[in-house]
Amino acid sequence: MPTGIIIAVIDIALIVHAAKTGRFSPWGFIILFLPGIGALAYVVVELLPAWFRSPNIQRARSQMAGAMDPTRRYRQLRDDLDLVDTIANRAALAEECLALGKYDEALGHYDRVLALPLGDEPVFMLGKARAEFGLGALDAAIATLEEVKRRWPSYQFAEGHLLYAIALEKAGRTDEALANYDDVGRYYPGAEPRVRQAQLLQRLGRGEEARAIATDVARSLGRAPDHVRRRQAQWLTAARQIAGV
Q1: N or C: which end of the chain has fewer CB within 10 A?
Q2: What is the pTM of this model?
């Protein structure tokens, strides 16, 4: 295709874009009267800055940077804590330690935070429980989560409740695990608790109950929007395997 036709097609497409996004004046005229050059200027001045400011692009750039240097944020947060030892800085570093699997260090940070007058909060207790769970200290994690329920009975945190059920299951307390999977599955924003409940029932030889739950999950997710099914793909696949569909 001749270069002139390609430039004309690009110019027309960008003029239409400028009109739709409220930029026609002056960009529509600039692109029209300066073929090629006007289009390039529009891309450089208007589109590229907006593209780089996009939350999705910022997130992708952050994820790429994290993949190339997974401890970069950890090092930065550690430097921040060395500079100013605050609850916020220590809690942020503890959370990053959890993400990196540095559970022993995370536990130490959470213990320090919880010992402070303003650090005695349920969210930090839950962080401590996650660190204990990561270390394989199941009884300690269960005890910490039960302490959260005892001290803050109205505090509801779905991830913490799910962690409690998983810890009970791994500790061999299957009846309690099933009850908690059922409870958290009623309000958890996803299918994981109910699928885990079905998987545990299946392992216990209670196949009919497992299939009933899995079939309901598979049917519900099958009717969900595409973005929900993509986000829940792991649990949808597991539910279909148990349900045999």
Answers
A1: N
A2: 0.73
